[in-house]
Amino acid sequence: MVERRKHIAVSGAGTCSEPVWQLAEEVGREIARHDAVLICGGLGGVMEAAARGARAAGGLTVGILPSYDSRSANRWLDVVIPSGLGHARNVLVVASGDAVIALPGEQGTASEIALALKLQRCVVALAAWQDHVGVLHATSPAEAVTMAITAVGGVA
């Protein structure tokens, strides 16, 4: 039996600073280097940067959009899922990941962290979310991805 590739969800702000963009892009590259699938909310900011990084490194990218409009997806996605669920799509994003990496964001990101923990997913935070109980903390994109992959039984 062939083992399914690990799925790593990436969560963060829809609009972000250049330093956060760079972190997210490197997270995406690291996910691809580990032959994992990147799952995200499909829009801009952290989601776009992570998808761009994963795609540049030859990875598979999946975006679960809040609307029914597939044209709202960022251009780095291989698979676009127009959910039409608005913010409720956050549960699909984290449920689709074997683990979640959370970068700086706002209420949407906080909701994804809470949902992931409720669904018993490993959550690794990078550059944010230091005050959330149950969240692991990484100091670099490589460490965040290694922690996520290891937590779900993968080889890092």
What does this structure look like?
The structure is a single chain. The chain has one domain (7-151): Rossmann fold (3-Layer(aba) Sandwich), CATH 3.40.50.450. Helices cover 37% and strands 20% of the residues. The chain contains 5 helices and 7 strands; from the N terminus they run βαβαββαβαββα. The protein has a 7-stranded parallel beta sheet, sandwiched between helices. Helix 1 (18-33) packs parallel to helix 2 (46-56), helix 1 crosses helix 5 (141-151) and helix 3 packs across helix 4. The radius of gyration is 14 Å and the shape is globular.
List strands and helices in order, with pairings.
Layout: E1 7-11, H1 18-33, E2 37-40, H2 46-56, E3 60-65, E4 79-82, H3 89-96, E5 99-102, H4 107-118, E6 122-126, E7 136-138, H5 141-151
Parallel strand pairs: 1-2, 1-5, 2-3, 3-4, 5-6, 6-7
Helix pairs in contact: 1-2, 1-5, 3-4
